[in-house]
Amino acid sequence: MNKKKILIADDDPNILQLLNVNLRSDKYDVISCINGETALEKIKEERPDLVILDIMMPRIDGYTLDLELKDESETKDIPVIIITGMSDTKRLFDNTESARFIAWFEKPLEINKLVDCVNGYFHGSKKSQKGKK
User: Fold this and answer.
1) Which phi and psi (to 5°) does residue 93 adopt?
2) pTM above 0.85, yes or no
3) In this structure, are residues 50 and 81 in contact, taking their beta carbons and an 8 Å threshold?
4) How far, in Å, CA of 65 to CA of 57, rounded?
5) Is residue 42 within 8 Å of 58, Cβ to Cβ?
6) Which candidate, 59, 51, 44, 55, places its Cα nearest to that of 89?
7) Can you give the pLDDT at residue 27?
8) CATH code of 73's domain
9) What residues make up the domain containing 80?
10) SS3 track for the chain
């Protein structure tokens, strides 16, 4: 059975490590990127099955990166989970924009919920987790 490939982009090395450890333990291949520019390059090279993006990152922020992914035919169907340290996430996206994401999670992250969302996406329930944190 092929492992699913997940790319995580966050400028906080602690978040990257925490997600990396937890998702690898669930038998996913994980690619970590410290900024949006590197993430965009890796996404085009690696074609991950899922992308987890922080909204606030240097060079290319997660919001812009997601828009770029949706504009490219090769990457437009890659599912995205958003993580953000911004409060009041519901105001951040209107209903049209939030439809682009599988889920979003606010920091501080509840890692178990995020991992459950990823597992649910790949192994069963693909219900949206919008607004969940």
Assistant:
1) -125, 135
2) yes
3) yes
4) 10
5) no
6) 55
7) 86
8) 3.40.50.2300
9) 5-123
10) CCCCEEEEECCCHHHHHHHHHHHHHCCCEEEEECCHHHHHHHHHHHCCCEEEEECCCCCCCHHHHHHHHHHCCCCCCCCEEEEECCCCHHHHCCHHHHCCCCEEEECCCCHHHHHHHHHHHHHCCCCCECCCC
